[in-house]
Structure formats: C-alpha cells, structure tokens
Amino acid sequence: MGRGKKRGVVAEMPILETGLWTGHAAALWDLELELAERQGAEICILAPDEPAARAAFAAANPDLVRDRAAFLAGLVPPALFGADDVDDDADTGADETKEEDA
C-alpha cells in the first residue's frame, strides 16, 4: 500500500509459488480479507494454482463466499489525500492544459 502521499490501493498481489493456494486456501482467503479490511478495498493474492484452488474452495464453502461478498460491499477506502491536495492537483492539471492550448 505504501505510506504517506504514495499510499494507494493494491488490487492484486502476485506470487510465483505454486501450491500455496492448493495447500492453504483457507489461510490465503482469510489473509485477503484481512488485507482488504486494512486498505478498505478488495485485494486478490494471485498464484499459478490460484484460479482452480479458489474455485474449489468457493464451491466447498458457499457461506464464506456469501459472507465475503457482503464484507467487501461494505468496505470504504480511506482518504488517501487531503481534500486540499486533490483540489490543487486538479487545478494544476487544468492550468497546464490551458497553457498548452494557447
């Protein structure tokens, strides 16, 4: 996620290790939810075996899938910048465009 002004939402975390999702699907599922709660948005831990293992885990745990969907729907990302910073950046971009057009 980073720190300070470089802080941002991370949608995916790829790992190259095969077998983690197959052997530890429940732990990775829980880790994704913990990280999602921290950043206020969904994150997916990706691996070579993730699609098949995630599908098998989801099929075996429909209640957890339903709970996850409800949990993710209620997440709100934290404000990453102050309102003043966002307005200043927007104004700067507009001014630069006007100068280029002139």
Structure characteristics:
single chain; 102 residues; mainly alpha; two-stranded parallel ribbon; flat
Please indicate the count of domains.
1
Question: What is the C-alpha radius of gyration, as a whole number of Å?
Answer: 19 Å
Average pLDDT taken over every residue: 80
Name the shape in a single word. flat
Number of strands: 2
Structural category is: mainly alpha
- Fraction of residues in helix: 55-70%
* Strand percent estimate: 5-15%
End-to-end gap = 39 Å
What string gives the helices and strands in order?
EHEHHH
The biggest beta sheet is recorded as:
2 strands, parallel
Write out the strand line-up for the largest beta sheet, numbering strands in chain order: 1-2
Treating each run of at least 4 consecutive H or I residues as one helix, how many helices? 4
Contiguous runs where pLDDT drops below 50 for at least 5 residues:
81-99
Which oligomeric form is depicted? single chain
